[in-house]
Amino acid sequence: MSDQTLTIKENKMGVMPVNKLLITMSLPMVISMLVQALYNVVDSIFVAMISEEALTAVSLAFPIQNLLIAVASGTGVGINALLSRALGQREQQKVNKIAMQGLFLILLCYLVFLLFALVGVHLFMSSQTDIPRIIQYGDIYLRICCAFSFGQFFQITFEKLLQATGRTIYTMLTQGLGAVINLILDPILIFGLFGMPKMGVAGAAVATILGQIFAATLAFTFNKKKNTDIHFTLKGFRPEKRTITSILYIGIPSILMMAISSVMTFGLNKILIAFSSTAVAVFGVYFKLQSFIFMPIFGMNNGLVPIVAYNYGARKEKRIHQVIRYAVSYSISIMIIGVILFQTIPGPLLELFSASEQMEAIGIPALRIISIHFVLAGFSIIANSVCQALGNSVYSLVVSLMRQLIVLLPAAWLLSLSGNVNAVWWAFPIAEVVSVILCALFLTKSLRKIKKEME
């Protein structure tokens, strides 16, 4: 038996009762994601106080911010899956190597967005609208967010390392710190309180990146002092093609899957701005509000993925099936709550963002129509995450392509030809029906495959 074998003790992901494990792994992340969602909403509420044009600019900048998160999170998924599998196999040297190669890869990703901040931001904003004030706001906001995005890149990565080893309580603290700092600094920097200069939209961006930098610092500290499953060292480090390729093999489909959302948002913004800039603002507000519903499920996924990956590596098929059943049940329950809220109080939700009469006229039907698909989306999210954890990320990529580019965008464009902006929102439920059918098929195929492997 090699020196690497049995150097890692049996992790709780292989022995703790499944329902308790999912809850204890996920609850800290669910709480932190809710805090993150609160920050997203409050951030936009403050921006809306500047003007509707400022809110529209931030909405138009969202595809790039989403792309940044996609690259960081998708790469993190690759790191997370490989790490969890190596932990299940109890290979300490492999765990350490994956962590260090992942951090190097994340640094390269940040440099790409730094370059975009220097040369690409204005071109991106002016490609969506010709309204000078909106372009100006968007330029300022997006350039700051991208140039200093190293905070977000390393925050997400260090949090993924904590999640992969079952220490999700610490990620709750890091995300909570980032969100609280952002919430405190937003009004201070935007409106110039307590003697600070009044920075407007730039203040919102600075508050965002400062929150991310502090969160990244705390996440790094937790990994160094509390994460005994991973040992960081630069001694003898050099980029290793094989490990980086393995991370990207799992991570790229996840990156593309989330990046597809950026393409969809960009395309839908182009469709909506043909009606009015207010329609774009409504779409941006919808994304902020729905994060309250979706973020808890994404938080649960952060607990689900390492559990599935660990037990796959440890060849414990029964535990994989159990955790999937629990996750689907919780996800659908959360989505039902979301449907009830969006159907019953859309007006008060929009009023949080200083909504004008025109915004409410567009936004109330939008929230009610789009929320119809929430329950189906709850199942799809869990199914996609399980496929990724089992190494079948390409399935998730296919689902996202079909849902957002092949179905949703064309459907939205065709519906927009009616001249009625309310018709555009029906593209979301239409696309989700296709998504849930594909997810059910791919999940079944993945589970049959691992059953054969373990037999």
Q: How many strands in all?
A: 0
Task: Kindly report the average pLDDT value.
Answer: 86
Rounded to the nearest angstrom, the radius of gyration is: 22 Å
Strand % is under 5%
How much helical structure, as a percent, in the residues? over 70%
Q: Name the quaternary structure.
A: single chain
Stretches where pLDDT is under 50 for at least 5 consecutive residues are 1-8
Main sheet: strands, sense, barrel: none
How would you describe what is shown here?
The chain is globular, with a radius of gyration of 22 Å. Helix 2 (52-89) runs parallel beside helix 6 and helix 9 packs parallel to helix 15 (393-416). 83% of the residues lie in helices and 0% in strands. The two termini are 24 Å apart. By secondary structure, it is an all-alpha fold.
Question: What are the defining features of this structure?
Answer:
mainly alpha; disordered N terminus; 455 residues
What does this entry show, briefly?
This protein is mainly alpha-helical and 455 residues long. The chain is built from 17 helices and no strands.
Summarize the helices and strands and which ones pair or pack.
Elements: H1 18-50, H2 52-89, H3 92-119, H4 121-126, H5 132-147, H6 150-164, H7 168-191, H8 201-226, H9 241-273, H10 277-313, H11 317-344, H12 346-351, H13 357-370, H14 374-389, H15 393-416, H16 421-424, H17 427-454
